[in-house]
Each structure stands twice: as C-alpha cells, then as structure tokens.
Amino acid sequence: MEATYEAPAAPFLPIWQRSGFTKPSPIQQQVYWPLKKGGPVLGLAATGTGKTLAFGLPLLETLQPGQQLQLLILEPSAELVMQVRNVLRQYAQVIDLKIQGIVGKANPKRQQEQLKEHPEILVATPGRLLELIQQRQIKVNLVETIVVDEADSQLDPEHLDATREVIASLPADVQTVLMSATEQPIFEELSKWFGYEFERFDTRESDRLQQKIKHEFLVVGNHQKAEMLKRLQRGPISGKNALVFVKNLGSARTLYKTLSFLNLRVGLLLGDESSQKRQQIMQQFRQGKLTYLITTELAARGLDFAELQFVVNYDLPQTLISYTHRAGRTGRMFREGTVLNLGNEHDRRNLQKIVSAQFELKTVYFIEHKLQTERPKEIHHEEASEEATVEKPIVAEPITPAKRKTHKKNRLRNQKNKGKHQNK
C-alpha cells in the first residue's frame, strides 16, 4: 500500500510552499500514485482546486532530462496553454526539464526555433500540434503520457475527432490522462472510444463542501443591470474587481460601450482578439487596474485569477455545466468568493431549477451600498428607487385627449354673403 501523498517531492517543495500551499487538495492526493504508476486516469474535481499541479507534479517526477519529448498536455485555448506552461515551468526548471507552449496564433518560426531545444514537455492546442506533427517538426515516438485537460470540452462532439487524432499519432502504449471539472456522457463509455478502461477519481462533492463560494441572486430589471454595476462598484465591489459574463461577443461589446460611457474602469476579453492583446488585458485586470472585465464563457474558460472575489452573471447561463465553469473563476483553492447573478424573479426561478442539483441561490438586496439577504421594509418611493432593487411595475395612467378650443373661421366668402343674409 502506497504512503499517503502529503507534499510534493523535495525539489518542488520550496516552490509549492512559496505559492501558499500547506497540504495537497483532494484531487492532488487521489491521483498522485495512479499517475506515477502509468495507467489511464480520469480525474474529476471542482474548478480552482489545483488540477494542473494534480497531474503536473507526479508526471514531472517520471520524466528524464535530455530524452526529448516525453509529456504532451492538450489545452483548448492559447491562454490556457500559456497559463499551464507558466505554472509548471518553475517546477520543471529545478529538475532540468524544458517546457514549451505551442499555439496557433504564435510566430511559427519562433516556435520551430524553440523546438530545436528538444523540450521534454509540450503544452499545446490540438490544431497547431497536429500541424507540427504532420510536418515532422515534432517527434512523438518517445512520448510516454498525454494529458487532455478540460476534457469535457475537448471530448465533446465538436472537438473529439481532433483530440483522438492527436492521441492516435502517439505510441500505442501511451498513458492517457483526462482532467475535467464537469461530467460528460462520453466519460461513461471511454473504453468504447479509447479501447481501454480508465481509473476514475471524483472529488467534486468533497471539494464543494470545502469551498467558500456564495451563490447569490440580485433581483434587478434587464434595463437596470448596467446602472447596478455602477452602484456595485461603489459598494461591495469597491476596491475589488469582478469578471462579468455575457452571452456572446455582441453583448460583450455593447456592455463595454455602456460601462465606458458610465466612466467605469472596464476591459473586454474576447476570443477573437490577438493573444498578445488578451494577455495585456488579463494583466491589467490582475493588477487591479480594471474594476470589471467583460467576457464570455468560452473566452474565459479555465483561466486562473487567483485572488478574484466576484463573478457577475450579467447574462445568466442556460446549463449547469455553464454555471459551474463561470462560478469556478472565483474562490480559487478554497478562498472566499461570490457569484452574483442578475435578473428578474422569473430569471431567478429558472436559474434555481438549472443549478439546484449542486448549488442553492440566495436572494440578496442592494441596500445602503451593501448586499443583504433580509428583504427591505416598506420605504418611501424616493428611497426605494435609490437603495432597493426590488422592481415595482410602472403603470401608465390613461391619457385623456385635451379638448380642442372651437372657434368660427372668418372666411372671405362668409364676409361677402353677410349683408345678403341680413337684408333678407
């Protein structure tokens, strides 16, 4: 029987401790020894619970410096490639391993030059990686392990073929590791798609019990949401910042213009912009130069803002999976966080039905610059409009047409006939 995993290997320990860790998270403990044994693993854990280090540290311990490419890590976006590379690079360096990120929008010549250094670890998006494998710029004959991170996304019908094509290009005995925050139907039939069984580890329930994330619903009309963001930045979000989720790119750009007009410190993080611009915006947000960062679920998926305390669902998610990934941007590594959902009473009831299997929403009210769970007492209309957010229907009074003043027209023909009528 293996010893319980209590801390990383000695070379990694100082870095791990400087990052603020005192003990491994549940998913880190459960997958450590199975990963080192080399078998297929499926790891399910709540967002923000250290999945990168859960697969990264035990696999780094199995690699040999100077033996070319041995570990592949697939990520669904360029930002996640850079994020995972940066997290693991500091650990890899202390044991003389080289790690490189491969993304589609980067300079191809620069990537090819870096590949000449023969890194033992590659973090890549599937499309660009396949191109380089087919061009024989990357040799995969010595790859021992492939990690498919955000597997719920990379194994969905839209991306499954590309992911399987990468795996098919590797040696037949490669170790396959899948990591995800949410369940997918394909996870129940992995043997059908991959030809072998996966050892499954699911810590999501215990993760949720340890998390300190509040799930709140603020009742506000759709046309009042932008103004509410302005009021919130003078209240509970004052001195902090929030990631604001909308439904699509058009909504993101519209809200950005609205909040800019309201003189709020706001940024825009979209998937159709250059990687360099996205990195600049995220850096500004992490440094506290922006109060609000508007984004979509796809653009922000998996991104780590370690100290983020607020997520605002400006447009509400339509599925539990969507809500889970949005909520996972706050309360990272069991810190405190708040998911604030905006909408009317009908929206609140619908969202509670969607998330009831895992989350309970608490209705809150914005009173005296604070979010409170106690419903406001009866107050004057002037105060209600300024402090409370419970909407009252506005009923227009019927409009009574004004009576027109009648007057006799002084027509020329009447003047001509006037004398004639009088003489008769």
From TrEMBL:
Residues 224-372 form the Helicase C-terminal domain. Residues 32-201 form the Helicase ATP-binding domain. Residues 402-424 have a biased composition (Basic residues). SUPFAM superfamilies: P-loop containing nucleoside triphosphate hydrolases. Its EC number is 3.6.4.-. It comes from the Bacteria. GO terms for molecular function: helicase activity; hydrolase activity. InterPro entries: DEAD/DEAH_box_helicase_dom, DEAD/DEAH_RhlB, DEAD_box_RNA_helicase, Helicase_ATP-bd, Helicase_C-like, P-loop_NTPase. It holds the Pfam family Helicase_C. PROSITE patterns: HELICASE_ATP_BIND_1, HELICASE_CTER. Residues 376-424 are annotated as: Disordered. The keyword ATP-binding applies. Keywords: ATP-binding, Helicase, Hydrolase, Nucleotide-binding. PANTHER family: ATP-DEPENDENT RNA HELICASE DBPA (PTHR47959:SF1), ATP-DEPENDENT RNA HELICASE RHLE-RELATED (PTHR47959). Belongs to the DEAD box helicase family. This is DEAD/DEAH box helicase. It comes from Lapidilactobacillus mulanensis.
